[in-house]
Amino acid sequence: MATIDVTDQDFAGTIQENDIVLVDFWAGWCGPCRRFAPTYEAASAQHPDVVFAKVDTEAEQALAGAAGISSIPTLMAFREGVLVFSQPGALPAPALEQVITAVKDLDMVQVHAQAAAQSDRTEQA
């Protein structure tokens, strides 16, 4: 599957409607972003079961701000609508593959339980 461009208008829907979504926050002027792009594209071809999304931080400044992006490129991974990975910096292909494998191998029952427990602690505070 090729990468898709997402905007503020379809970001939440993309995350909620797909099991696994990787999001690359980038900008055209960013050298590391341009170097990471072919690696990200290649991974998208190898993992058709994963949605590979891209957010242009210049065009989508409000979305980048809401996501807390302070450095680009930043890669985020969502599984079942839950943010499970976020890291700035361009990853080499083997490291990106490790992230994808780790996200696929997550025990989502445990992840959802931890998220619920965190939510309960936040509400009690």
From TrEMBL:
Q: Which residues form a coiled coil?
A: none
Lineage top rank: taxon: Bacteria
- Keywords of this entry: Disulfide bond
Q: Which N-terminal stretch is annotated as signal sequence? A: none
Q: Which PROSITE patterns match?
A: THIOREDOXIN_1, THIOREDOXIN_2
Where does the Thioredoxin domain start and stop, copy by copy? 1-105
**PANTHER family the record matches:** THIOREDOXIN-LIKE PROTEIN 1
Similarity comment text for this entry: Belongs to the thioredoxin family.
Name listed for the protein in its UniProt record: Thioredoxin
According to the entry, what is the taxonomic lineage of the organism?
Bacteria, Bacillati, Actinomycetota, Actinomycetes, Micrococcales
Point out the gene that encodes the protein.
trx
